[in-house]
Design goal:
351 residues, Rossmann fold, 41% helix, single chain, six-stranded parallel sheet, alpha/beta
């Protein structure tokens, strides 16, 4: 059917696919949504594992499993809508971030919409001390804590390279994401659920009843139905043209020679030989570059690897990011000025 969609539900922690039964039952009876094929993505999330031969997967494992499920089980579906509850929203965001970090943004082009219900984008503080005592060993619970670094990083990638993306590329893919909070949710606050997403809303119910619509007039069902109907005819994002070769000018040096000059200049920057300082530099660069870079103990080789990786991600303006990082962390130093002059002389950034 033209405009058909595959709907994928992703549940939260200590839950299962059964949590989506109310939605699935109403969709099955709704003639307006006959273009949908619903399915559920399940993953292991028990409160405890007593089998020494089995471990509870962490969110990275689950995110990679979701990516595999979409690529293999749903390979024939050209349009996808992902709907997630609670931790499921973190799984979806981690999947997006890890796919983009691998330079595989084209895999995400099929996703027309993502709808998040009560997702703890900033973590959940409910019974935090008790949870740490009872579930502190639980690999999934750790990602639900406030200010979790991995969650924050994935959230940042999603905002910059998904929500605010303008075209599809290896490292970006524009997808509309809508985040809903429960008006009486005591597990995930509205502030955490809405976070800094540009399109948000508040629906009746607590953390669990928000996804338990009892009729097609329930506001949670009505909201999801509207997004599904809008997504039906959403166009696949256009792919940005791959950057062509840089223009060759008489003053331009061969790439290898330029890298040697730049690396020598970078090594002259104070503290550049300190791994912790280089990590500060990397934090301000496009994350896909750092993910792809193979680390080495020697600062020179590491910087060489870094600069070579820039060639593959020129569309992310990594040279400008590097210049900004240096100017921010080591302002007015002559070694930084030399590096910036070399970049400008090679036409890699404006003087």
């Amino acid at each position: 059917m033209s405009g058909s969609l595959r709907l994928v539900f992703v549940h939260g922690i200590l839950s299962s696919a059964d949590t989506w039964s109310p939605f699935l039952s109403l969709i099955e009876q709704d003639a307006d949504l006959d273009f949908l094929t619903p399915s559920t993505f399940s993953y292991t999330s028990p409160p405890i594992s007593l089998n020494p031969l089995r471990r509870i997967p962490d969110i990275n494992d689950i995110a990679d499993s979701l990516r595999t499920y979409l690529a293999n089980d749903l390979a024939d579906d050209t349009g996808l809508v992902l709907v997630a509850h609670s931790q499921g929203g973190l799984v979806v965001q981690r999947m997006l971030a890890r796919t983009l970090a691998d330079g595989c943004g084209s895999e995400l082009a099929r996703i027309r919409r993502i709808v998040l219900f009560a997702c703890p984008n900033s973590g959940s503080e409910l019974a935090l001390l008790l949870r740490r005592g009872l579930l502190g060993w639980h690999s999934q619970e750790r990602d639900l804590r406030p200010l979790n670094r991995d969650i924050t990083e994935a959230h940042r990638v999603v905002l910059n390279q998904v929500i605010h993306a303008t075209s599809a590329s290896d490292g970006a893919c524009p997808i509309k994401i809508i985040a809903y909070a429960g008006e009486s949710d005591g597990v995930v606050t509205p502030t955490s659920a809405k976070s800094v997403f540009p399109e948000v809303g508040v629906l009746p119910g607590d953390h669990f009843s928000i996804i338990k619509p009892d009729s097609t007039s329930h506001r949670s069902y009505a909201a999801l139905k509207r997004h599904l109907k809008e997504a039906r005819f959403t166009k696949v994002p256009e792919r940005a043209p791959r950057p062509g070769p840089s223009p060759v000018t008489p003053a331009a040096r061969p790439a290898a020679d330029l890298y040697r000059v730049l690396v020598d200049g970078l090594l002259g920057v104070p503290r550049m030989t300190e791994p912790a300082f280089r990590e500060q530099i990397y934090e301000l660069l496009p994350p896909v570059i750092i993910h792809q870079m193979r680390r080495d103990n020697a600062a020179r080789i590491e910087l060489f690897s870094l600069l070579r990786s820039f060639e593959h991600y020129r569309h992310l303006a990594p040279w400008d990011s590097l210049a900004m990082a240096l100017e921010t962390l080591v302002p007015d130093h002559p070694a930084v000025a030399d590096v910036l002059d070399n970049l400008a002389g090679a036409g890699l950034r404006k003087a």
